[in-house]
From TrEMBL:
Coiled-coil region(s): none
Enzyme superclass (EC): hydrolase
GO cellular component: cytoplasm
Record protein name field: inorganic diphosphatase
InterPro entries xref list: DDH_dom, DHH_sf, DHHA2, DHHA2_dom_sf
Example GO molecular function: inorganic diphosphate phosphatase activity
Keywords: Hydrolase, Manganese, Metal-binding
PANTHER family cross-referenced by the UniProt entry: BNIP - RELATED (PTHR12112), MANGANESE-DEPENDENT INORGANIC PYROPHOSPHATASE-RELATED (PTHR12112:SF22)
Length: 309
């Protein structure tokens, strides 16, 4: 039986890593030979999760060989996918994002749902197949949901996410789900433990528009005021990405989880489009966005509409 790899997107977040691991377990229970992989480095939040549940990180695969059978989780855009996907044999996609324009030669299985996290979909796949999740897999899935929804603060959160997380917390034996989630999110608040370059590349996704390539990264913080001291370094890192040809417009969401506000830093061109998407910039050039927590729901859609207009 030919081996199939399962991988999330480049610059993987907790959902991307945990979904690859969890779907690999599910597929194995269903008699399929698959291997979990990752298309980038493990970030501090995900490292906390893997260490807590004593699970090894997936193998790093930076490029897939021609004809390699592959399943994508937590993304469906070529610009975010592992290198070589265009020549690989894409057989399946499990995701919760917008459609990103991948074209395939052969039919494939696609399961996409408008929920807050890929892990929510995978929990339901396990339920539908009458699978009893082990504690560590339930823990990974609960962690992914808590991460992607910012423990249900994000507007991407649905009732399905809450139901799945509640069931998963019980299976995993998490006595205080909120305390665990906040500890995990605190571990991921890496603005002082990572370099500015690492932050701007860490949880970053690429989007191709007619006016050029746009990168959107995000870092969560617990104290937005304290994080301001890092802004000049972050701004320089964003400008370096533009100067180096990585993007035409580079954005970084500095998201204060506690105060529920995002300060959107940026570099490059297309300010007129950013103004159209997010309103007038502050005096220093950044965008102050109260109640904005989600890249998927509150940054990418208005940005896409503004680029179209």
């Amino acid at each position: 039986m030919e081996n199939i790899i399962i991988t999330g997107h480049k610059n993987p977040d907790t959902d991307s890593i945990c979904s690859a691991l969890s779907y690999t377990w599910i597929k194995g229970q269903l008699g399929e030979k698959v291997t979990a992989c990752r298309a980038g480095n493990v970030n501090p939040e995900t490292r906390f999760v893997l260490d807590y549940w004593k699970v090894d990180a997936p193998a790093l695969v930076e490029k897939v060989e021609e004809g390699q059978k592959i399943i994508l989780v937590d993304h469906n855009e070529m610009s975010q996918a592992v290198d070589g996907l265009d020549k690989a044999d894409l057989v399946e996609i499990i995701d919760h994002h917008r459609l990103g324009g991948i074209v395939t030669s052969n039919p494939l299985f696609v399961r996409m749902q408008p929920v807050g996290c890929t892990a929510t979909i995978l929990y339901n796949v396990a339920v539908e197949n009458n699978l009893t999740l082990p504690k560590e897999i339930a823990g990974l899935l609960f962690s992914a949901i808590s991460s992607d929804t910012l423990y249900f603060k994000s507007p991407t959160t649905t009732e399905k996410d809450k139901e799945a997380a509640g069931a998963l917390a019980k299976i995993a034996g998490i006595a205080d789900p909120q305390a665990y989630a906040l500890e995990m999110l605190q571990a991921g608040s890496a603005i002082n433990s990572m370099t500015a370059e690492e932050i701007c590349h860490g949880d970053m996704k690429e989007f191709d528009f007619p006016q050029g390539k746009v990168t959107v990264a995000q870092v969560n913080v617990m104290n937005g005021e304290a994080a301001k001291a890092k802004w000049p370094e972050l701004q320089k890192a964003l400008q370096a990405m533009v100067d180096g040809g990585e993007a035409d417009t580079s954005l970084l969401m500095v998201t204060d989880i506690m105060d529920e506000v995002t300060e959107l830093l940026w570099a490059g061109k297309n300010q007129d489009i950013l103004d159209k998407a997010f309103g007038k910039a502050e005096a220093d050039g950044h965008y102050h966005l109260p109640k904005v927590l989600s890249r998927k729901k509150q940054i990418v859609p208005p940005l896409t509409d503004a680029f179209k207009g």
